[in-house]
Amino acid sequence: MKENSLFNRLSKRLESLEKLPKIDETKSIPKVLEEKGFSRRDFMKWATAVTAMLALPANFTPLVAKAAEISDRLPIIWLHMAECTGCSESLLRTDAPTIDSLIFDYISLEYHETLMASAGWQAEENLEHAIEKHKGNYILMVEGGIPSGDTDFYLTIGGHGKTGEQNAKDACESAKAIFAIGTCSSFGGVQAANPNPTGAVALSKVTNRTVINVPGCPPSEKNIVGTLLHFILYGTLPALDPYNRPKWAYGLRIHDLCERRGHFDAGEFVEEFGDEGAKKGYCLYKVGCKGPYTFNNCSKNKFNQHTSWPIQAGHGCIGCSEPDFWDTMGPFEEPVADRLYNSVFGGLGADATADKIGVGLLAVTGIGIAAHAAISKFKHPKDEE
């Protein structure tokens, strides 16, 4: 009964959006996909995968497909702050575009500094015009940390001398929904790492509006597009975890679904890169994998058109979707629980710090993971050899 009610509600939501005019009448997403060689079958397979990713029943696939097809009705403003543009690069690849990246190529992307042709005063004018024209209706996506306070001059934009912080505040004020794309925008990222000379902060720190965080360095394109489609489908915020990350994408730890989890449970570990354990695909915890402390769906989505992901390639997770990971997760090739380091809480081990600032919701069992790993290894029959 609840499923039917939800289906009907989402159907009505999409019907109302479908009545909105296209920004560009000459192009439609279905037409562009066809021109790029994607068949209707390919598109529906993609919609089926996204439906599963969003934890919706299989019979909702046509609704997800429709949401993608009409996504060009919703204007999007994408701002770049202090960042490397890696999040945009993750999404907008030109050499082998996926359906995800093509959708973002042809939605109503009103402003995106990396993609648009205009520059200088024309770019500033375009941003102001887009905010005013679509006031209260546009989706704001922000990439990069925000230099703030007395250090906001580190990001001064355009001839008017406005700071990135002011641009972000102005854009947030009139947005219908706000997404922080990538770890820098979500939590400050490398810019906010100690000693943080630019005073970089998360987007949520410069606005009193709710910000949906889509962290990762970079995040999966599926998580970016999935968050957009969730908003198109529901018109509301998704269920969020304590760090305002969508639960459908960040509800489980890397460790929970890791392809090497069986080796962890069996006490089979890579002791150093290149050893026999590494060749056999053993668990990477002892060479620094932060999978037990990191919430993300990398093992399901992977990267580069689902080709691989860091753990499959032989390097542990570095915890890039967690708050303050540059300060709390490094060195990236040392186990978390085995060391002490200086933090704002003093010389604490990472697990103790995790308990205070919530780097992972695993905190209460963090020490147990290390102990389990050590005991399992000690008991392993191969040790006797």
Describe the structure concisely.
By secondary structure, the chain is α/β, with parallel strands linked by helices. The chain has two domains: 2-250, NADH:ubiquinone oxidoreductase-like, 20kDa subunit (Rossmann fold, 3-Layer(aba) Sandwich); 254-384, Cytochrome-c3 Hydrogenase, Chain A, domain 2 (Irregular).
Question: What do you see in this structure?
Answer:
The structure is a single chain. This protein is α/β, with parallel strands linked by helices. Helix 3 (40-53) packs across helix 4 (61-69). The protein folds into two domains: 2-250, NADH:ubiquinone oxidoreductase-like, 20kDa subunit (Rossmann fold); 254-384, Irregular (Cytochrome-c3 Hydrogenase, Chain A, domain 2), CATH 4.10.480. Helix content is 39%, strand content 10%. It has helices at 2-18, 29-35, 40-53, 61-69, 86-91, 99-106, 120-133, 164-173, 183-187, 221-234, 247-250, 261-265, 276-279, 298-301, 310-313, 325-328, 350-357, 366-379, and strands at residues 76-80, 109-112, 139-143, 146-147, 156-157, 162-163, 177-181, 200-201, 212-214, 340-343, 346-349. The longest helix is centred in the N-terminal third of the chain and has 17 residues, at 2-18. The radius of gyration is 22 Å and the shape is globular. It is built from 18 helices and eleven strands. Strand 10 (340-343) and strand 11 form a beta hairpin. The strands form four sheets. It has a five-stranded parallel β-sheet with strand order 2-1-3-7-9, with helices on both faces. A two-stranded antiparallel sheet has the order 4-8. This is Ni/Fe hydrogenase. [3Fe-4S] cluster binds at residues 298, 317, 320.
